């Protein structure tokens, strides 16, 4: 029996499997592999893109999405996360969850594995990772650099992430090095990638064998110099509101503005996983400007989920 494939972060896929998911996402003729089946979506955090993209991807594949608020199941208070997962697996083909603590996802996946369940767990966002966003990011870059669907020459391309090396940054960096990209992360020291993350990314790049690399710096212009793409995210995420003032001071000089875009390669594009705080991590003239692919990126959250769910339902367990 082949082990059930969960997606808690991008590196739960091999580089070849990542290619397969992206190729499925780019197809317009996917069969209704979820016809007659449910997909549970446990939402401990509020969501715009994760909820809408996942619901519509499930519908596109013929399935029925069921959204469950965190207070409806009370994971860790009313019931263990493992028991919630086992219950939902009785009714659904896939269990997705957007959680406060990544350990909850690990508990859910572990409980299903221990029970011999074939239902996969998909991370819609946790404090540690945001893999579905990273899939959409690569789809966007493939479309930009290839001029349309199909294989894209991401190997040898470079992307600069400017700002907090958060969950979105870590998942993006994993996906990008697996695709053979040079990743540069510019952050204030307190908010930089941990040394362990850098080491792990280097090992992941080496395992992929596509020439990917990672570098960290405290200088946004050093990261942006000649880059094919610039990427940023909010400086203060949900649950960090009390740190807002401190974070604004720490990230002064790390805004993606016209000067930073000018330092990138000619024709470089700008990405942002949203929501955007204009005047903080990015200026209005950039996020709404001609270099921005932010709305195409947001649209690809749905196509990315469609490809991932199709892979999990049809080809994710060695079938």
Describe what this molecule looks like in 3D.
The protein has two domains: 10-129 and 301-315, Aspartate/ornithine carbamoyltransferase (Rossmann fold, 3-Layer(aba) Sandwich); 131-298, 3-Layer(aba) Sandwich (Rossmann fold), CATH 3.40.50. The chain is 42% helix and 14% strand. The protein has helices at residues 15-26, 49-60, 70-73, 81-88, 102-114, 131-146, 167-178, 195-208, 220-224, 244-250, 258-263, 284-287, 294-315; strands at 38-43, 64-69, 94-98, 121-125, 158-162, 182-186, 213-217, 229-232, 269-272. Strands 7-6-5-8-9 form a five-stranded parallel sheet. Strands 2-1-3-4 form a four-stranded parallel sheet, sandwiched between helices. Helix 1 (15-26) crosses helix 13 and helix 6 packs across helix 13. It is globular and about 55 Å long.
| Content-based structural category | alpha/beta
CATH class of the largest domain: Alpha Beta
CATH architecture of the largest domain: 3-Layer(aba) Sandwich
How far apart lie the N and C ends? 11 Å
What is the mean predicted local confidence, pLDDT? 94
Shape: globular
Helix content: 40-55%
CATH fold name of the largest domain, please? Answer: Rossmann fold
Our count of domains comes out at 2
- Alpha carbon gyration radius: 19 Å
Which runs of at least 5 residues are low in confidence (pLDDT < 50)?
Answer: none
Query: Main sheet?
Result: 5 strands, parallel
Looking at CATH, the homologous superfamily of the largest domain is Aspartate/ornithine carbamoyltransferase
Q: What's the tally of helices?
A: 13
Give the helices and strands as they follow along the chain. HEHEHHEHEHEHEHEHEHHEHH
- The percentage of residues in β strands lies in 5-15%
| Sheet with most strands: strand arrangement | 7-6-5-8-9
Number of strands: 9
